[in-house]
C-alpha cells in the first residue's frame, strides 16, 4: 500500500485521500483488483476512524468485504481491536458485513460471540437473523464458541433469541442450531459438560458459569440430551467422567452438596430431564444398514406417502389445497343443510331429512366418501415439517366426528347411521391399506413375511 495512503487512513484524513486520488485516479481500483490485500478500510477499521471508513465505503463498497493477507475483513479487525462504535456504524451501513467469512470460516458475528460482546451480538441478530446459522470450517456455530470461551451472557442472548424466533421455519432452525455437531460430533451441550471448572459440579450455580451454561441448555425444549459425540458418549456420560476427574470419584458417591441453603446434584437434575447413559440407549441403525434392509410393506407405505407429499410443486400444492378445502366445505354444508330440508313438525321425525331413506343412503355414502377423501388428501399435501401438522390432525379428527354426528342427527335412524359412519371411516382406512398392499404385491409378487415385519 502507498505509505501516504496508509498514513491518511491511520489519521482519518479525507482530504489527503482525495489528494492521492487526484494524483492517481486508479489508486483504489488497482488495489481492488488484488484478491487478498490490506485496504485503507482495514487501516481505518483498526484505528476506529469512522468518517474515513464511511468515505471509503462510499467510493469502494467492495472493500468492506475484502480480506487481507491474514484472512480478515475490516469488520474482523474492528472487532479484534474492540472498536465497538465502529462496528455499530459499519453494520448500520451494511448489516450483511456481519456474515463475511474470514480465516477458519469465522465471521465478525462469531468473533463478537467469542469476545463476549453480548450487546453487539444482540444488535447483529436483530439486524440480520441469519447470523445464528453461521458456522466455522470446524462446523462450530455461535453456541459452540460461546461455551468454549465461557461467554455465559452471550449464550443467554443466543438461546433467548433462538427461543423467540418467529421467522419462517423457525422451529426447524431452533432444532438445528441447538443440536449442531462439530467435526468431532460434539454438540454445545457436550462441550458444556466437558468444561473443567475445579469441582464446579458440586457447588452453587451462581459461582460457576459452566454450570449455568449446562442448566441453560438443559432448559431448552429442543435440545437433544442423549445424542452421542465422536467418542460415543452422551451428555450424562461426559458429566460423570468429568465429575470423576474433578472430584476423584463418582458423582453419585459424593452425594448432593448444600451451599447457601441450595441443594445441588447436577447428575440427578440431568436424569430427571431425560438424560441417559450411552450404554442404556438402543443402538441406532446406521444408514447402510437401513438401506440394505428388506423393503417391507410398511416401508413402501411410508415411501408412497412421502412421494405424495413431495411430488406436487408449490403452485400445484396450493391449487390442490384450495380444491380440497372447497370439497370439505361443500360436503360439510350438505350435512348441515341437506337437500329438501328437514321435517319441522313436533313429531318423532322432527329434524330428520324429508327425502326418502333410499336417496338419503346414497347421499350419505357419496357425501361421506368425498369428505373423507378431501380430508385425507389435504393431510398428505401439508408439508411434513409444518408446525401445524399435529394441529391439523386433531382438527381433522374433530371435524370428522362432528360431521358424523351432524349426518346422524338428520338421518331417519341416528344410532344406526352414526355407527355406520365410524364403520365407514374404518373401512376406508382398511381399503387404503389394501391398496398399498396390492401395489406392493405387484412390485414383489412372491409373498413374504417381511412385508409386514422383519424376519
UniProtKB/TrEMBL annotation:
Membrane-spanning residues = 316-335, 359-384, 391-410, 416-438
User: Which Gene3D superfamilies does this UniProt record tie to the protein?
Assistant: Ankyrin repeat-containing domain
Give every PGG domain span: 314-407
Keyword field contains Transmembrane: yes
User: What start and end residues bound the annotated signal peptide?
Assistant: none
Keyword flag NADP: no
Keywords from the named record: Membrane, Transmembrane, Transmembrane helix
Q: SMART domains, per this entry?
A: ANK (SM00248)
An example of a Pfam family matching this protein is: Ank_2
Which InterPro entries does the record cross-reference, listed alphabetically?
A: Ankyrin_rpt, Ankyrin_rpt-contain_sf, PGG_dom
Q: What is this protein called?
A: (rape) hypothetical protein
Amino acid at each position: 500500500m502507498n505509505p501516504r495512503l496508509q498514513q491518511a487512513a491511520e489519521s482519518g484524513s479525507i482530504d489527503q485521500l482525495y489528494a492521492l486520488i487526484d494524483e492517481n485516479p486508479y489508486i483504489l481500483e488497482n488495489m481492488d483488483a488484488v484478491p487478498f490485500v490490506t485496504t485503507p478500510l482495514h487501516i481505518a477499521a483498526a484505528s476506529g476512524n469512522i468518517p474515513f471508513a464511511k468515505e471509503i465505503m462510499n467510493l469502494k463498497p467492495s472493500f468492506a468485504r475484502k480480506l487481507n493477507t491474514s484472512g480478515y475483513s475490516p469488520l474482523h479487525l474492528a472487532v479484534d481491536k474492540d472498536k465497538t462504535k465502529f462496528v455499530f456504524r459499519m453494520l448500520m451501513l451494511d448489516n450483511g458485513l456481519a456474515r463475511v467469512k474470514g480465516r477458519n470460516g469465522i465471521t465478525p458475528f462469531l468473533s463478537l460471540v467469542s469476545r463476549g460482546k453480548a450487546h453487539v451480538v444482540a444488535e447483529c441478530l436483530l439486524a440480520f437473523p441469519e447470523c445464528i446459522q453461521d458456522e466455522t470450517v470446524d462446523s462450530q456455530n455461535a453456541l459452540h464458541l460461546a461455551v468454549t470461551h465461557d461467554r455465559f451472557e452471550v449464550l443467554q442472548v443466543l438461546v433467548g433469541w433462538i427461543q423467540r424466533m418467529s421467522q419462517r421455519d423457525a422451529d426447524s432452525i431452533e432444532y438445528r442450531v441447538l443440536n449442531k455437531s462439530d467435526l468431532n460430533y460434539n454438540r454445545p451441550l457436550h462441550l458444556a459438560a466437558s468444561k473443567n471448572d475445579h469441582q464446579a459440579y458440586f457447588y452453587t450455580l451462581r459461582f460457576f458459569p459452566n454450570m449455568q451454561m449446562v442448566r441453560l441448555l438443559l432448559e431448552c425444549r429442543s435440545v437433544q440430551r442423549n445424542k452421542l459425540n465422536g467418542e460415543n458418549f452422551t451428555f450424562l456420560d461426559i458429566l460423570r467422567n468429568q465429575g470423576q476427574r474433578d472430584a476423584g470419584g463418582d458423582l453419585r458417591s459424593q452425594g448432593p452438596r448444600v451451599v447457601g441453603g441450595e441443594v445441588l446434584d447436577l447428575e440427578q437434575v440431568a436424569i430427571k430431564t431425560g438424560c441417559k447413559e450411552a450404554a442404556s440407549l438402543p443402538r441406532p441403525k446406521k444408514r447402510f444398514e437401513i438401506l440394505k434392509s428388506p423393503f417391507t410393506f410398511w416401508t413402501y407405505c411410508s415411501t408412497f406417502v412421502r412421494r405424495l407429499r413431495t411430488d406436487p410443486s408449490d403452485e400445484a400444492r396450493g391449487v390442490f389445497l384450495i380444491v380440497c378445502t372447497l370439497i370439505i366445505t361443500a360436503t360439510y354444508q350438505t350435512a348441515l343443510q341437506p337437500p329438501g330440508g328437514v321435517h319441522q313438525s313436533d313429531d318423532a321425525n322432527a329434524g330428520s331429512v324429508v327425502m326418502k331413506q333410499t336417496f338419503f343412503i346414497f347421499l350419505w355414502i357419496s357425501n361421506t366418501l368425498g369428505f373423507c377423501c378431501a380430508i385425507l388428501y389435504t393431510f398428505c399435501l401439508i408439508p411434513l415439517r409444518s408446525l401445524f401438522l399435529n394441529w391439523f390432525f386433531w382438527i381433522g379428527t374433530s371435524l370428522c366426528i362432528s360431521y358424523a354426528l351432524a349426518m346422524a342427527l338428520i338421518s331417519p335412524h341416528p344410532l344406526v347411521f352414526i355407527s355406520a359412519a365410524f364403520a365407514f371411516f374404518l373401512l376406508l382406512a382398511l381399503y387404503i391399506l389394501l391398496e398399498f398392499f396390492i401395489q406392493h404385491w405387484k412390485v414383489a409378487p412372491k409373498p413374504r413375511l417381511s412385508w409386514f415385519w422383519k424376519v
